[in-house]
Amino acid sequence: MSEHDRPDDVRDDGTPSDPLARVATLRSEAEAAIGSASGSAELEQLRVRFLGRRAELPQLLRGVRDLPAQQRGAVGKAANQARQALEALIETRAAELRASELDVRLAADVIDVTLPGDPALPPGRLHLITATRREIEDIFLGLGFSVAEGPEVELVYYNFDALNHDPQHPARQPSDTFYVTDPDALLEPDSQLLRVHTSPMQVRAMELQPPPLYIVVPGRVFRPDNDATHTPQFNQVEGLAVDEDITLADLKGTLLSFARAMFGPDRDVRLRPHFFPFTEPSVEVDVSCFNCSGGHMPDGSRCPVCKGSTWIEILGSGMVDPNVFEYVREHGYDPEKVQGFAFGMGIERIAMLKHGVPDLRLIYDNDVRMLEQFG
């Protein structure tokens, strides 16, 4: 330290002539410098200058033991108070500077959130089940049907009784149906269950609207199954058409139009006798295979879709049983005056057939590599 740089209260050997006064001077200088610091970097330099290991104030504290006994207490107390005050002042000033510097950065780093991402993110897409459901709905809307939806927690009355299910029908057993209320009361009309098909909405719709009635009812249904072709929760579309003079030929024509819109213009359909409690006569419907020619692939191997039969089963259907109309006779559905047809198909099955998905569970695994193939 040169003679011109040495403070007046410091001796030639660098020790303060009056330690107590020197502590007050250092504290005053530091407070002024800290209060006028213009940035975090400058504040850090001041911290090192006044409170660093080699700074004068800490040196004074370490040298208290060398002072005369009558000075030690006063100088030590003053130096400690000065250090604590400066530390608190630095902390306060640092918070102020951080806040002001953040404001400056926020003002300078304005982001236009309306700009596209970089790199651009791929747009989302409908899940395969949702896309297939909407495609089915669009086809039937074009055929003059309307879309109806109903509750997933259903009453035994609508799920079984009003659909002409025998009281001892196996589907009523807890092994085939998820009951919400006591399964011991299987025959009680007001017992609740998770619907096993969307057909209950057919009866509900007839209670709400007199004939003519043309609806499709998509939605989730629930059954205790789980394998490559069944899941406990799946999706169905039920259809109902009720009017005067409707015949089985109308059913075949409707389903032929659907099959050609869904699977291609060259498709044909065939009806095979079957049994369903709520239709009579009942038929299962096959569509001609869209994956092969005559049951064989170009290389001569058997078609994996139709298994060489040239036909693919897609749904069950039939003419509405007159007993079903008896439950809604008071709403205008006199079985002597109206008749109709009903059908039901699994949305997952339609999606699997159309897109060649080999295992139903793949649709629900949510593997992006599989799902992004469709969209």
How would you explain this protein's 3D organization?
With 375 residues, this protein is α+β, with helices and mostly antiparallel strands. It has two domains: 19-108, no CATH class; 128-371, BirA Bifunctional Protein, domain 2. The protein is built from eleven helices and nine strands. Strands 1-4-5-9-8-7-6 form a seven-stranded mixed beta sheet, sandwiched between helices. The chain has a two-stranded antiparallel ribbon with strand order 2-3. Strand 6 (269-276) and strand 7 form a beta hairpin. Helix 1 packs antiparallel against helix 2 and helix 3 packs antiparallel against helix 4 (69-108). The two termini are 79 Å apart. 30% of the residues are buried. The mean pLDDT is 87.
